[in-house]
Amino acid sequence: MNIPVDLKYTKDHEWIRLEGDTAYIGVTDYAQGELGDIVFIEVETVGETMEEGETFGSIEAVKTVSDLFMPIAGEVLEFNEALNSTPELINKDPYGDGWIVKVKPEDIASLRSLLDPEAYKELIGV
């Protein structure tokens, strides 16, 4: 189970990585493993300002569809267009090429309220 130490996590199994004033958001290795083969990602919120906890899209696997939740409040700047043709990038590289959206956070300090790697490991029981 890959849980990078430089990321923050949510109880809903999203991760967030801050790069300057932009945040990348995706689903964790644990989440993609539980979902199975990912076949489609839908994000129709680009350009919208979302609140923490709001649904920003959905992720569809062979047997299920799950909502994607914003870890922090901010504006959705970009969807990872590579996922349109190769959604399995989330299965292969959930923390790299499998990122889902870029966001401009309203308040970077709000990342402090998210789970650190140790707390996330405890949540999923590893």
Helix and strand arrangement:
Elements: E1 8-9, E2 14-19, E3 22-27, H1 29-35, E4 38-42, E5 49-50, E6 55-61, E7 65-69, E8 74-79, H2 82-85, H3 89-92, E9 101-105, H4 117-124
Antiparallel strand pairs: 1-2, 2-3, 3-9, 4-6, 5-8, 6-7, 8-9
Quick recap of the structure?
The protein is an alpha+beta fold and 126 residues long. The chain is built from 4 helices and 9 strands. Strand 6 and strand 7 form a beta hairpin.
What can you see in these coordinates?
This protein has about 130 residues and is α+β, with helices and mostly antiparallel strands. The termini are close together. The mean pLDDT is about 95. Helix content is about 20%, strand content about 35%. Strand 6 and strand 7 (about 65-70) form a beta hairpin. The protein has a single domain (about 10-110), classed as RNA polymerase II/Efflux pump adaptor protein, barrel-sandwich hybrid domain (OB fold (Dihydrolipoamide Acetyltransferase, E2P), Beta Barrel). It contains 4 helices and 9 strands.
Strand order of the largest sheet: 1-2-3-9-8-5
- How helical, in percent, are the residues? 10-25%
In round numbers, the mean pLDDT is 96
Which strand-content bin applies to the residues?
25-35%
Reported CATH architecture: Beta Barrel
Question: Count of helical segments?
Answer: 4
Strand-pairing-aware structural class: alpha+beta
CATH class: Mainly Beta
Q: Based on CA inertia axes, which overall geometry fits?
A: globular
Would you report the number of β strands?
Answer: 9
CATH homolog superfamily: RNA polymerase II/Efflux pump adaptor protein, barrel-sandwich hybrid domain
CATH topology: OB fold (Dihydrolipoamide Acetyltransferase, E2P)
Oligomer: single chain
In the predicted model, the low-confidence regions spanning at least 5 consecutive residues are: none
Rounded to the nearest angstrom, the distance between the terminal CA atoms is 8 Å
Radius of gyration: 13 Å
Q: From N to C, what is the helix and strand string?
A: EEEHEEEEEHHEH
**Number of self-contained structural domains:** 1
Specify the biggest β-sheet. Answer: 6 strands, antiparallel
